[in-house]
Amino acid sequence: MYQPLRASRSERLPIRTLEYHVRLWEGGGSAPAAPPLVMVHGWMDVGASYQFVVDAFGEAFAAERRIIAPDWRGFGHSMPPARCDHYPFADYLADLDRLLDHYAPGQPVDLVGHSMGGNVAMAYAGVRPQRIRRLVNLEGFGLPATEPAQAPARYAQWLDELRGLDAGDRHLKAYASAEAVAARLMKTNPRLGRGQAEWLAREWAQPDDRGAWHILGDAAHKVVNPLLYRVEEALALYAAIAAPVLAVEASNDSMGLWWKGRYDLDQYHERLRHVPDCRVARVQDAGHMLHHDQPAAVARLIEEFLQAP
Description:
three-stranded antiparallel β-sheet, 12 helices, eight-stranded mixed β-sheet, 38% helix
């Protein structure tokens, strides 16, 4: 099994309506010289997912940083105290705002976000531009454009899926063992090594009192967002970002696999033109989970970007 090189610790932090689980890797001193580095994960993932990248950071970089990786609400160990049947996107912005109030009061941070977390990071940097020093977006592409005429069907879909959630038809599969969870991770991502998968499985899932392993994610996340994705709003947020942005994409075309021509990399790159200061980098031999596939390459890109003049 993979053995982490840099030890982390966990904290519980009250944020709005629930207690957040936050993973921290501390720098070498009691007062790190550089701004805090906040790393936010994607859909059906956990903060621990960044362990491989943290381990790949250079010694000097890691020594001067406090690295903060929360489990988003409804993921990992940040579960709501009462049953929840859907998760509005805006909640992530409010949660991140309170998280930064706690860990970096009055201080800009460096922010890294993967996938859904990248989308949150881009939106937050437009809403609170003074809070972000630099931003790294790992495959947070946004979504295909929608039209107002799609609203009636979308709301109807949401209502139907809420009923389905109540009926139990959107549950997450349970697994017989941690090894079975690891096998599932490797099936989804063939680049993930067995040692990595076996370590990650124990962060991504946990056993119940009968020994069945359950994914640490609320099934309500599978309910569609009732609100349409409005590209014009996203572009207005992009335009308000004051921080330099590094948009990192994998060599495998995730967009082509997901959207089948409805939304592609060229359209994404066109949207990025609205960000005042943005550059694009690519990680070779990697898929959407590029922080698992090529952690050393991702770590190097983050280090170079955050430390550049």
